[in-house]
């Protein structure tokens, strides 16, 4: 297959690999539904606009599921926000080691910040697990990174309040107050 065709079927291959790499598929699916709903309501679900798209949210949730394999849904949501609020974004989010080459496949270069200047400049790298490994967040800018980090922090603060019975779960999903938020204050 040519490069374009391989990349075209990569979405299916990545989704399949994610399911192979998570320890509890049901906990993963439930947590992913919650996170995607949260991201959409907060206005940060859009790869085109420099935020994270669906595959990136799935990769982030899958990594948390790997880190905490015995946690239930509510604990995974807490760890999701805590993990990415505190993540060192100079390091990529990986579900498995990046495979440099596959026998019989020539010409496809996986994500590698050691050999690629473009890969080194990515602000919030989240790497797909199937060959060729790619950064699913190449559109993130300094501005969208700041917004994402603010939202991770907000989500973590609200989830902590929920756990202390000072807030309800629906508060996590409160929509971003787009028309009442004054960015010049």
TrEMBL record:
<keyword id="KW-0507">mRNA processing</keyword>
<feature type="transmembrane region" description="Helical">
    <location>
        <begin position="43"/>
        <end position="62"/>
    </location>
</feature>
<keyword id="KW-0067">ATP-binding</keyword>
<keyword id="KW-0547">Nucleotide-binding</keyword>
<dbReference type="GO" id="GO:0006397">
    <property type="term" value="P:mRNA processing"/>
</dbReference>
<protein>
    <recommendedName>
        <fullName>polynucleotide adenylyltransferase</fullName>
        <ecNumber>2.7.7.19</ecNumber>
    </recommendedName>
</protein>
<feature type="domain" description="Poly(A) polymerase central">
    <location>
        <begin position="28"/>
        <end position="173"/>
    </location>
</feature>
<dbReference type="GO" id="GO:0005524">
    <property type="term" value="F:ATP binding"/>
</dbReference>
<keyword id="KW-0812">Transmembrane</keyword>
<dbReference type="GO" id="GO:1990817">
    <property type="term" value="F:poly(A) RNA polymerase activity"/>
</dbReference>
<keyword id="KW-0539">Nucleus</keyword>
<dbReference type="InterPro" id="IPR007012">
    <property type="entry name" value="PolA_pol_cen_dom"/>
</dbReference>
<dbReference type="GO" id="GO:0005634">
    <property type="term" value="C:nucleus"/>
</dbReference>
<dbReference type="Pfam" id="PF04928">
    <property type="entry name" value="PAP_central"/>
</dbReference>
<keyword id="KW-0808">Transferase</keyword>
<keyword id="KW-0472">Membrane</keyword>
<comment type="similarity">
    <text>Belongs to the poly(A) polymerase family.</text>
</comment>
<keyword id="KW-1133">Transmembrane helix</keyword>
């Amino acid at each position: 297959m040519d490069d374009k065709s391989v990349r075209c079927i990569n979405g299916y291959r990545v989704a399949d690999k994610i399911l192979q790499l998570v320890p509890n598929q049901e906990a993963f699916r439930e947590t992913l539904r919650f996170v995607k709903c949260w991201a959409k309501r907060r206005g940060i679900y859009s790869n085109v606009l420099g935020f994270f798209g669906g595959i990136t949210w799935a990769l982030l949730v899958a990594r948390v599921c790997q880190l905490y394999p015995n946690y239930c849904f509510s604990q995974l949501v807490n760890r999701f926000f805590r993990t990415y609020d505190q993540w060192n974004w100079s390091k990529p989010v990986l579900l498995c080691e990046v495979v440099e080459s596959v026998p019989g496949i020539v010409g496809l270069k996986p994500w590698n910040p050691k050999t690629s200047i473009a890969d080194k400049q990515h602000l919030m790298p989240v790497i797909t697990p199937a060959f060729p490994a790619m950064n699913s967040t190449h559109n993130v800018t300094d501005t969208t990174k700041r917004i994402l980090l603010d939202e991770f922090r907000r989500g973590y603060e609200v989830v902590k309040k929920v756990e202390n019975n000072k807030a309800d779960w629906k508060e996590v999903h409160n929509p971003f107050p787009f028309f009442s938020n004054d960015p010049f204050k």
